[in-house]
Amino acid sequence: MTNSMKRNPRGGDATRYVLYALGVLVAIMAAVLVKTTVVDNNGLSRANNLTSYNPLTVAPIANQTGDTGIPVPPLAPTATDSQVAPYPVIRWVASGLPPGITISHTTGLMTGTPKMSGTFPVTITAKDNAHPPTYGSTEFNWYIGDMAPVITRVVPIVGQGAGGIKVVITGRNFWDASDVQFGNVDAGTISVNRAGTRIAVFAPPQTAGTVDISVTAVGGTSAPVTADQFTYLPPTIFVLSTPTGPTSGGRRVRISGIDLGGVTSLTFGGVPSEEFVSKNKGTVVTAVAPPESAGTVVIAVTTPGGTAYTSSGDDYTYVVPTVTKTHR
């Protein structure tokens, strides 16, 4: 008997032993037949039965939460790939991420700041560098809450065009507020309480009219609502302390009204007064009349809120001084 015909320890001949080994190998190969979703160049998917020697599995990801305007903690998926050669390189893609969050295609790391609230079903897919490539994916929900500031009340709701009045804004989500605007004008320094529900600020100068107040904080900028409106009143003249004066000017005139604070110019019939001052929180302006020809003129007081004029019957009249003759 030749060596090739010697029996192995199991008692079978060499040919039978080789056939047994081949049968085991076929069984193993059959065990790794997997159903895989393939994405073609047109972005369409189809199910295929592929023989994979390196199954790719993406670990489940728990549902995530976040808030608008607040960066999410970095989130990275993980995957296992039995591929040995070539060394497995995985590329990551995601669909359904909340606006403002992105994924790194090389590391899978998801970072960013949500810009929109809602529930977002997210699918994370991994693809390796096998030939053909193997895919794996997992799904989860990302819940994003709305943290944008909301204004529910403003006190007071009216003020002078000169600004400077203290305004208290009530609402929610004012934490770390960085800016308050009256219309398109910055209010400057702001003070926020610890609960993030109250802001104290001073109204900036503005022309007469109604504007929306907006608050910008970590969650975004408040949306315009009726409750956030503030009205700047136009300046108004009620009465003059003296309605007449000499054509030589120099007469000191007390002008009473409302919203006369922050006067930028004051004229008598178009002629500027060189000396004027606003007093009593914008209810009084004292001005020195400039020289002018005899006649009745309109006084105009200009403030950041607009211009106020004297009305018929309340205008200022220049008169020629009477010269008294002395008889000897």
Description:
The chain is mainly β. The protein folds into three domains: about 30-145, Immunoglobulin-like; about 150-235, Immunoglobulins (Immunoglobulin-like, Sandwich); about 235-320, Sandwich (Immunoglobulin-like), CATH 2.60.40.10. The protein has one helix spanning about 15-30, and strands spanning about 35-40, 45-50, 55-60, 65, 80, 90-95, 100-105, 110, 120-125, 135-145, 150-155, 160, 165-170, 180, 185, 190, 200, 210-215, 220, 230-235, 235-240, 245, 250-260, 265-270, 270, 275-280, 285-290, 295, 300-305, 305-310, 315-320. The strands form nine sheets. Strands 12, 14, 15, 18, 19 and 20 form a six-stranded mixed sheet that branches. The chain has a four-stranded mixed sheet with strand order 4-10-9-6, with no helix packed on it. The chain has a four-stranded antiparallel sheet with strand order 11-13-17-16, with no helix packed on it. β9 (about 120-125) and β10 form a beta hairpin. The longest helix is centred in the N-terminal third of the chain and has 18 residues, at about 15-30. The chain is rod-shaped and about 130 Å long. About 25% of the residues are buried. Mean pLDDT is about 85; it is low at about 1-10 and about 20-50.
